[in-house]
Structure formats: C-alpha cells, structure tokens
Amino acid sequence: METRKNRMAVEGLRKADPGTLEVLVAEVLRRPLGQIEPGTLMDLLALAEVPDQIGGQLAKEFTAFQDQMFREIGDLPDGPPLADFCGELGGLDAARIPANVRE
C-alpha cells in the first residue's frame, strides 16, 4: 500500500453523536482502503463494532464498510504492501486498534 499525502482524515468520530456522525462519515465510508488515514480507519472500524449504538441506516453502512475494508485488507499482497499497512497501524496508540481488527 503506497503512502498517500491526501488520505481522508476525520477527527472526533468516536465521540460524535449519531446525527453528527452521519455528516462526518458520509464521504469517507465510500473511500477505498488506501484513501483513508489509518487512525480514521481504526475509528470507523471501532464504530462498526457497536451498530446498536448507532442505529438505523448508518449502522448498516458501517457494517458494509467493515466488510469491504476487511476484504481489501485481506487482498493486500504479502510483502511490502502488507508490511506497510501493518507498520502504519503499529504507529497508532494500541488503544485505538479495535477488537475486530485485532482478531
């Protein structure tokens, strides 16, 4: 996975109420793996773990996003692309990595 300077980053996702969250994530949920900043990706995947707290259509969008991201991560070839992705995650605070990614 190549490093991109123009990756989408959204702050405060884990603290946002569902209405604000819907506005904040509208565009980022449609982006591919390589276009999302790693910290934002982890926040989105953490939110996908609690669909009952989000509710409605947005919960379904988070579930679909999680499925897509795990497919894209699984499709990363062994070697430098996978190592780069893991290295980026290694640069994040461990508490920021959700359980669904740790599994």
Describe this structure in words.
The chain has 103 residues and is an all-alpha fold. It contains six helices and no strands. Helix 2 (38-48) crosses helix 4. The protein is globular, with a radius of gyration of 13 Å. The protein starts with 17 loop residues before the first helix and ends with a helix. The model has no long low-confidence stretch (mean pLDDT 92).
Question: Quick gist of this model?
Answer:
This protein is mainly α and 103 residues long. The protein has helices at 18-25, 38-48, 51-54, 56-74, 80-90, 99-102.
Helix count equals: 6
From the spread of the alpha carbons, the general shape counts as globular
Q: What is the helical fraction, as a range of percent?
A: 55-70%
The SS-based structural class is mainly alpha
Number of strands: 0
End-to-end Cα distance: 21 Å
Biggest sheet features: none
Estimate what percentage of residues fall within beta strands.
under 5%
Instruction: Sketch the topology as an H/E string, one letter per element.
Output: HHHHHH
Which helices and strands, and how do they pair?
Blueprint: H1 18-25, H2 38-48, H3 51-54, H4 56-74, H5 80-90, H6 99-102
Helix pairs in contact: 2-4
